[in-house]
Every structure is written in C-alpha cells, then in structure tokens.
C-alpha cells in the first residue's frame, strides 16, 4: 500500500502519469480516456470509476464524454476508467488511482459493500471520495452527486399512468439491480404513484440483477407467462430493461399496445418512444451531472466546501450525506426534441433509417 502523498506530490505524480493506458472501455474514445492540463486551475487530480458498459449505454456514451469535457473546462487533471461490471476490478482501479496520486476519487459503485471498502481505503490514504450517481450505503463519501432518484421513479409511475389512463390495468414491474440504491428509490417513487391508482393491479414484480438486459428478457418472459399474457403496462426501470420487455411484447404481437417506461433517454429509448413501443423515458442530463461532479471535486481539491442542494440519508451508515441532486425530466413523443436540443443525443444518431420520418413527424430535424 502506498503512503499518503502530499497534494504537491500528488499533482507531480499525476503529471508524470498523464498518458496512463486505459483504453479497455468499449465505447471509449481514446481522446477522452485520460487527460492532463498544463494550466490546471486546481492543483490536484480527479479519478472517476464508471461501473460497466452493459447496464446502460449512458456510462460510456454520455457520462464519459461529459465528464471529460467538464474536467477539461475546469482545467483539472483527470483519469476516467470503467470497472466493466467487476467489483474486484473497481477495487484494483481505485488502488492504482490512489497509488498514482489522485486527490479526489469519484465512484459509481457496483454494490455498497465494495464501494464502502474503496472509500474507506481512499480515506486512509488521504484521498477524498464522491459518490457519483449512486449512493454508497455505509460509505464515507464527502459528497453525493446525482439526480433526485425518487422523482425519477415518480416520473416513470406518472408516465405509465398517463399512457394507461384510468381503465383497469395489469402492471408488471421490472426493477433495477437490487445492489443499486437508485433502483430502490426508482421503485419506491414509481409505487408511490401507481399504488394509489385503484384500477391498477400489480401482476408481477422482479428486480433484475446487475440491470442485465438479457436476464431482463428472461425475467419479463416469465412474468408475462405467469400473468397469462394479461399485461397492460410495464414499469421498466431503464431503457435497457424497457428494450428487453419490448422484445418479448413484440414476439407476442403486443409491442406498441402495452405501454412501457424507461430511463436514460438513450438512442434506442428515444427511438422506441418515437416508434410508440415505449411510452416514455427519463432524461438526466449527463452534462449537468458531470459539471456538478467537477465542481464538487474541485472544491475538495481546493479545500473548499461545495454548494449542495441538501443532504441524503444513508440509512445504513446513519449519516446525512451532503448532496447535489439534479432534476430529471420526463420525455414522451411530444418532447423528444428537448433531449436533442439540450445536446443529450445527436439528431443523426436518433433519426436514422426508419426513424428519419418519425423524427420529421415529431418536428425534429
Ligand atoms: C442509474 C441509471 C442507469 C442504471 C443502470 C442507475 O444507477 O441511475 O441511469 O440506467 O444505473 O446503469
């Protein structure tokens, strides 16, 4: 184990290691993988560990470039890596980053236990930590930067209710990973809306381990069969899970007839919304989240306090974590263009092939 470095030492080491190899990420653009700046406005180096490339395309396609842009703009050195869904790998990356002299380490944990262990080790080496997007229960992060995830769930619940109307409806819930605190909040938010509508019946609910999209298809098929195909709406926690459910509905001639929710405003999610096979998605601007992380990290580097929106209770650790929580936006066919206008996706990515006409019909060009 390396001993604690002084800030100056850490900065020097960071400079010496600016071209560290880290190109193993699927969607990674080498220009984005690691960067240094000779005109750093903050005398430190930020390490970020993203969780995987499979549970959502957002981490590599939206978060990585947004984080790189935010750190570049702030003129601070950084190293962004991806744990590829492997908690041990995340631990190793964290050890290497700490050894390489990061002054702040931000993680999107793969589970609270491994996340808390990483944070404890970082603290023992004098490295401050931030929870990016997912709260580490029992962790020790200085800040938690995310969206209001209960509101995300409420938007999903309300979105599904808007698509279903007031008629009697059988609803299936396809929740996110049980190891992700966000998934708990999404489900709580969705239930707080849907459980209050007496004409709806919960006919099946399951969490999808690691948000695995393939497993989601198997799970949804089982829930669908168990409900005798009498499913009128699907609360899917993100666009990947939505895609899995839509695939099964398609096989049963039900796609487009059964509303499905989502989250992340991915290219596929937006295309499904335009095509009418998905009733809504939730847009969470990576640009905003990355900028909030950069601000909090730079405050820590400079020994200052970051501006927060409040605190979040860590029920396991029994502490209130200073938080910066942003506002998510509900996206339906009517406002897909908002995501594109905000730079959340590119028109040429969403409006390809058969979606060109659907985009034109929706006034997106
Ligand atoms: C994030 C979602 C994402 C999911 C799977 C959650 O913690 O908030 O945006 O879809 O993880 O990666």
TrEMBL record:
Cleaved signal peptide residues: 1-21
Transmembrane intervals: none
Domain Periplasmic binding protein: 46-305
Compartments in which it is found: Cell envelope
Biased composition (Low complexity): 33-44
SUPFAM superfamilies registered for this protein in UniProt: Periplasmic binding protein-like I
Region (Disordered): 23-47
UniProt keyword terms in alphabetical order: Signal
Protein name: Substrate-binding domain-containing protein
């Amino acid at each position: 184990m390396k001993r604690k470095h002084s800030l100056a030492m850490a900065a020097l080491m960071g400079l010496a290691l600016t071209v560290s190899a880290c190109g193993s990420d699927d969607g990674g653009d080498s220009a984005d993988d690691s960067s240094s700046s000779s005109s750093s406005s903050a005398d430190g180096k930020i390490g970020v560990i993203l969780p995987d490339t499979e549970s959502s395309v957002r981490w590599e396609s939206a978060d990585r470039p947004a984080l790189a842009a935010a750190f570049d703009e702030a003129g601070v050195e950084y190293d962004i890596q991806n744990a590829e869904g492997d908690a041990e790998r995340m631990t190793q990356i964290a050890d290497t980053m700490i050894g390489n002299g990061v002054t702040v380490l931000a993680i999107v944990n793969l589970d609270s236990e491994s996340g808390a262990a990483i944070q404890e080790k970082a603290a023992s080496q004098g490295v401050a930590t931030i929870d990016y997007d997912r709260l580490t229960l029992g962790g020790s992060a200085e800040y938690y930067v995310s969206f209001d995830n209960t509101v995300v769930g409420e938007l999903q619940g309300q979105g599904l209710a808007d698509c279903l109307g007031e008629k009697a409806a059988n609803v299936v819930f396809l929740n996110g990973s049980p190891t992700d605190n966000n998934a708990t909040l999404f489900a709580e938010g969705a239930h707080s809306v849907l459980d209050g509508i007496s004409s709806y019946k919960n006919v099946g609910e399951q969490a999808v381990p690691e948000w695995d999209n393939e497993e989601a298809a198997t799970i949804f098929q089982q829930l669908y069969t168990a409900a005798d195909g009498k499913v009128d709406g699907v609360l899917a926690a993100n666009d990947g899970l939505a895609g899995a459910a839509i695939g099964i509905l398609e096989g049963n001639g039900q796609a487009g007839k059964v509303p499905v929710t989502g989250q992340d405003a991915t290219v596929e999610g937006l295309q499904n919304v335009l095509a009418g096979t998905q009733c809504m998605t939730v847009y969470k601007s990576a640009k905003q989240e990355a900028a909030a992380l950069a601000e909090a990290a730079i405050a820590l580097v400079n020994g200052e306090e970051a501006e927060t929106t409040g605190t979040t209770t860590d029920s396991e650790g029994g502490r209130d974590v200073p938080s910066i929580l942003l506002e998510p936006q509900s996206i339906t066919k009517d406002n897909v263009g908002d995501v594109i206008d905000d730079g959340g996706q590119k028109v040429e990515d969403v409006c390809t092939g058969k979606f060109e006409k659907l985009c034109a019909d929706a006034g997106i060009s």
